[in-house]
Every structure is written in C-alpha cells, then in structure tokens.
Amino acid sequence: MMRDRDTPTPTSPAPAPAHTKTQIATRKMQQPMPLTLLCVLVCTALIHCTAAQMDQSPAKLEQNPCMNKFTCHECIQTQNCGWCMKPDYGDRPRCFLHTPKPEVCPESFIWNPDTSERILINKDLTLASGGAAWAAGGQFISGGSYESNAHQQSSASGSYGASGSSSSYGSSSSSGSSSGFSSSSGSQSASGSAAMAAAAGEIVQIKPQRVSLKLRINEVHNLNVSYSQAEDYPVDLYYLMDLSKSMEDDKEKLSALGDKLSETMKRITSNFRLGFGSFVDKVLMPYVSTIPKKLEHPCDNCKAPYGYRNHMPLSNNTESFSNEVKQAAVSGNLDAPEGGFDAIMQAIACRQQVGWREQARRLLVFSTDAGFHYAGDGKLGGVITPNDGECHLNGQGMYTHSIIQDYPSISQINQKVKQNAINIIFAVTQNQYSVYQKLSGHIEGSSSAILSNDSSNVVDLVREEYSKISSTVEMKDNATGDVKITYYSSCLTNGPLIKTNKCSGLKVGDKVTFTANITVTKCPTNPRDWNQVIQIYPVGINESMIIDLEMLCTCPCEHPGSSGYEKHSSQCSKFGTLMCGICQCDELHFGGTCECSMSDVHLNNGNKNMCRQGNNTNAADCNGRGSCACGRCECNKRPNPEEIISGKYCECENFSCERNKNLLCSGPDHGTCECNRCNCKPGWTGSSCDCSTSQDTCMPPNGGEICSGHGTCECGVCKCKSTDDGRYSGKYCDKCPTCSGRCHELKDCVQCQMYHTGELKNGDDCAKNCTTFTPVGVEKVKIDEDKDEQLCIFFDEDDCKFTFKYSEVGELVVHAQEEKECPPKVFMLGIVLGVIAAIVLVGLAILLLWKLLTTIHDRREFARFEKERMNAKWDTGENPIYKQATSTFKNPIYAGK
Predict the structure, then answer these.
(1) Of 34, 630, 763, 830, whose CB count within 10 A is highest?
(2) Per-residue pLDDT tens digits for 31-78
(3) CA separation for the pair 841, 655 (Å, rounded)
(4) pTM (2 decimals)?
(5) 339 burial type by CB count under 10 A (0-12 exposed, 13-18 middle, 19+ buried)
C-alpha cells in the first residue's frame, strides 16, 4: 500500500517518501524564521482557536428538543425532529435533530415529513366590471361544486389515517415530484376555470379559493391570500324597523325617503335589492298588555302587537319599498326594551323567505330608539325554551315561535352573522348609541350610527356606513384552538409587513395581500380532528379560501398495512408488534425486545444497577421515581395523566419547569415542559418562555428605530435609557418631558417672527437667520401626541411667557401662541404712596379707636359714680350720752302774752 500511494500519476506530482518529508521539515525548522512570519503564524493560530471555541460554545448550550421521544408520533410532533425506523438500531436515540450518517441509519429508514402546500383552485380575481353579467341575476354556482373533487384529490395525496395505508416509506421521497405535477395541473385548470367563470358572470374577490396543506406541529407556514373588491358588486339591503308607537314619525319619514334611498344605493351599484321588515315584541305579559281590548288596539291608531313580520322580501322593485313602509301600521308595548333580537335572528335565518343572494354584500339596517331583550328575558313571560336559531315564518311572513322560544343570545346572533356573512348596521337614536356601540363590538362585521329622532338622516347614514364597510377588509377564520393563524399585510403601502388582519381605504379594483402565518400548536386528542377544513374569509363577504389541513401527527409505520408494522415480530421475541423499529409488547411481556416476562421477577435483582444512572450504587433505582423491572425503569404514573415522568432512568418530567403567572412555561402558546426544562416555541425565549424574541412590539407605529433609538427591546418591551439630556419614557421611548429637543434652537426665531422681541429683533437679523420655517399663530397651544408634537415654554426679557410647539413629521411645522402671557405692569410710586397712606390711615384709625374706647370707659365710670352718689343715705341718729350746751324750759301757764 505504501508503494502504491507513492507511485506518481500522470495528473499529480509524486509525493515525497515519508522519511524524506520528515528530513525536509526538520531542516526547515532548523533554519532561522523571519520575525514577521512568526507573528503571522501566532495570530493565525489564535484566530483559529477563538473561532473553534465560538463554534463549540453554541453546541454546548444547544438544547436538543428531540431527547426523550420514545415513539415515532411523539418525535415528529416535535419541531425539526426525525425518526429512524431501523430495527437493529441498538440503544441509540431514534429521535434525532440532525440527520444521522447513512451507515448508522439509511435514508430509507428515516421518517421526517415536510410541510407541503398544494393549490387546488386558483381562479383569477375579478378586476373588471361584472355588472352586465349579473344583470340576469346570476348566482354563485361553484360554491359547493368543487368540494367533492378537492376531497378526492386530498384523499389521493397519500395521507395516512387511522385505518392505515399501503404506501411504503419511500413514498415520501417521491411526493415532491407528484405534488409538483398536481400543482402545475392545478394552475392549468385554474386558468381554464377562471375563463369559464368570467364567461358565466361569476365574481371572484378572494384568491386562491382552495388549498391543500400538510403541516407539522409548531412549524410556521406562510400562506398568501389576496382580496380585491369587484366593481358593481351586488348589494342586498334589508331594512328592519322598530314599529312601536314611539317610531311613528320615523316610519313616515322613511316612507318619504324610500325612493331617495333606492336612488342613492343604485348610484353605488346597479345590482341593488331592497327589503323591509318590522318588529315590536312578544305578545305576552309583561312585554305587552294582554287585556283583550289592548291586544287589538294597544294605543291610538295602533294595530295588534306582533313579534316580527317580513313585509317585503328583497326585490329589485325598489319602488314598492315606500308603499310597504307607508302601509305598515305601528303598534305598542309596555316595557322599554323591544324584541329586536327575535327579528334579527329570523331575518338572517330565513334566507329563502327574505331572499338573500349567495354572492352579494348583505346589509341589515336595524332601526330603533329603544334597548333590546336577550336570552333569559323570556322567563319573565314564562318562555323557557331556548332559541334554536332556525326559521319560523308562516306564509304571511309572521314569526310563529315568538311566544314559544326565548330571545336569542348575543353569541347566537354573532354565530348566525358569521355563517351568513351579513353586515348589521345599528341605526339608533342618540340616547341608545352607547349601548349599541358596545353591542357592535361583540357581533362580527357590525357597526353603529346615530339616527336622528325622525330618521331624516337615514339616507346619509346608510351611504356613509356602506362606504365604511366596503372600503375596509378584515380577514377572519374559523380555526380551532389547536390551529393558530396570524395575519400580516402592508395593505396599500409598499412598506414592510405589519401584524394586522384589517386594511382600510380600499377602492374598487384595489388589491391587497395578506400573509397568513399558520401554526398547528398541538395535535388534538381525537385522531378524527387531525384532518380539518378551515375557512379564511373577509368579513361580510360570502367568499372564502378553504384550507384542507392535514396535521402530521402520526407515522405510517404505526398503522397496520405498512412495511414498518409487523405483528408477532421476531425482533420482539414473538411477544409484541414491531412499529417504526421499536417493540410494542403484549400485556405479559416487557423490555426492549419483549424479552422480559412478568413472571421473571428474579431478573430484577440481577439488573438493578442497570436502572441507576452511571451505574451509581449510591443512587436510588430510577431516581426514586420508578421501579426497576428486567433491567429497565418503569416510571411511576402521576394522578394527573398530563403529568408524565419519563427518561431511561426516570430523570425527566414535564411538570416541574419554571412558571410565569402560575402557567407552566408561560402557557402552551409559549412553550412546553420537556425533561425539566422549558422548550420554547418559535418567537419566545427565556427560562420560562416569557420573553418574546420578536421586536415588532418595540417598533414605533410610524416606523423608525427600535424603541425610537432611546432604549433596548427586552422581552418585547422597551427599556428606556436616561441620557444627559433627560429621561425617555413611553411605550416606544419616544417621550422625553425633561429634554429640550429643538426648543432652544427655535426660540429666537419664534420670538422675532411672532412677537418682534429677542436677540434677533434688531434690523434684518430675523430675516437672515430664520428662513426654515414661519410660525403659525394659534389662540391656545395644545399638544397632539399622534403627530409627535413637542411643547416649548420660555420667558423673555420682559418676564413674559410665550409658548410654542413644533412637529418634525414630514417637514418642520411650528405653532406659536398669538399673545404672550405677561405679568401686569407695577406702579412703584403708587405702591410707596399707598403704603405710606395706609400706615397713616391705620395709625389714625388706631388713635381714633383708642380715643373712642377711652371716652366710653370714662363715661361709664362717671355714670356709675353718679348713680352711687344718688343712692347714698346718711345716718341721722344722735349719740345718746350727748347733751347740748343749752336747755330750754317752757312755762306751762304762759299764754304767750
């Protein structure tokens, strides 16, 4: 072999002998090496080492989601995982993330299905006028014709059901060519059917119409769906009116405006039909008076009450609408709410009686000035039978089950609206608008508008609401909880796709494309649900894209009839079934090849160390969470069947991972718990899968940098920064109350241009330096955050406050307050003189007050003195021992002569 290897060939020089190479290398090493070359070699070695470390580090941190998947269906239900079906595969994991080498597992034994898409019906959109074709009253004839054909194609695509299939494993490799053939043939048939549809007058507004899709679990598949509003699209308008006594003037006005309503709608579309119905309430107490006299004439000029009546089915003869409205008689009831829900349900459910067309935009105008009864209110009148949502009209158009069934619920109304693609317009008076506005939020495709007290604005109302409905497209679907569909579109712009299912501002002929991100989050427990039919439809349009979805939840080798399925296989010791390379043992045997029997209890003692990880004698068997049987761990079962202990040594579980908001791995939409760690789904990361990897929520609505360039996006939320200029805040870090922005830059120009003050007021300084903008004067400066306006407030040399705002959305626009807010001028001399005068006056007042108080006090004292003096009584008594100095004696006989 050595001689053969060293023999020269004509195409390559002969290599030197081994010993010669060694001698040459030794001589080269002995020669002096230049310093520059030595530096280059050292740097190169360092770079290679660093690169090798970087290449190896992700491998160490990479989590393998395919670990501990012991069956084929568990494996392929894990994203990016494949299964090796080779019988003699040893103890190697069969579920792999990276395809093994061919010598380990040949390609013919690998089952790793791919997501596939096949367009079945792809008719071209109707962009030209379809009015002529619809003049004859053409109907949508292909709505149910292609379902059986598409079902046959889907059945022939090689899908595996519960009953199995005879297809071999190698069929997966040839499916690509077959699907390519069917796709091309589908496009040819689509072009041909489009031509036939155009000739037949069929209108197509959504494309494609039917798609066959095979999806693996948690793999996102993008499916484009286009919508275009056709010109002169048919319109059916059914006017449903409350004819209680309070709406009498509205009825008269509608009768007078009926012709104008027809003319207005015919300007929008030539294929227009109009109908009319009315309602009052259930003819039961306490809704209406059941006194016999009141049942015939509940009020003046009133007819007997009724639940609902279809006066005029949808018809092209719009001239008779006014006559029908005029002839309809009003009635009366007792309570404030009306039985409008009964009428809405019958108007929708009775498609033939009302005359709804298959392919037309269906409008139901609901006019009232009162509230509504809903499910449960019927108990007040003794009606307990739930509403069945079916049509119950007699030959005269009267609702026959008004007193038999309860009112429908809001969810029932919403379900009927979605099934029949009807847009409800709640035309209600001002006092009821808030109630019906909330109601319209719970009914798909509905809207609310304010009706004048006499319905004089009904024509403008219908025209405006129809314009809103027709200029907006909103995509919805009927996907179950196991299928998640997210919509992205750039609408009419050429910008990047944004997360939205609604586009506005559409005109006739405009085409918008939505990208539907379809993900199967988990396989349903019932295998019958692995094949589903999903509809993606524009709200209010009776057209849809139908998706025949097949969930790739199982492997063909798990079903009888497959070459990988063998009962009583010799690989399983004749005691089990070989499925996908592994043995499914019967009830009496177990083990990798069913070599263990339930009766061989003594085998447990000899193989106990095989149930300990790393043959660790100190560790518990099966980590204490299982029992060792025949050298293998049988893990314990949890009371909750969804909590599973797994692994070769029962080392894994799916219920002990980190939680967020008490949800394991933040919930099934974010991730799943696998082997004690959260395996996050695409779009989520973190130890508990609570962080979003998408930065869409950190992008400002008007575009720009992430978090407006003033923060970082962490877990889908902007974390704003603090700079020397100020601290940024807001959802997108776009607000900075403490930042000056361009306020100081614009201050001088606003002063000189608006108020003729400031540093640039002299000469031509203002005209020379302020050329980029001219402030617009406003009475009061108010900030509009939607326009990203910044408020600036300054004080000038006169201490006057002036306020202005600026916006840089597009071009620089400045709005300044017309008048400055200046403090009033101060008259200092007057203040001084006033203070002096005030001091003097206060002093005089104090003196006068002192004098007054003193005078009052003196007068009081003097009056008291006088009073005491007047009341004084002197004692006139004499001293009994006192004798006067003289004594007087009288002669008794002296007669005075």
Answers:
(1) 630
(2) 444 444 444 343 444 444 444 443 433 333 456 788 778 889 989 988
(3) 90
(4) 0.56
(5) buried
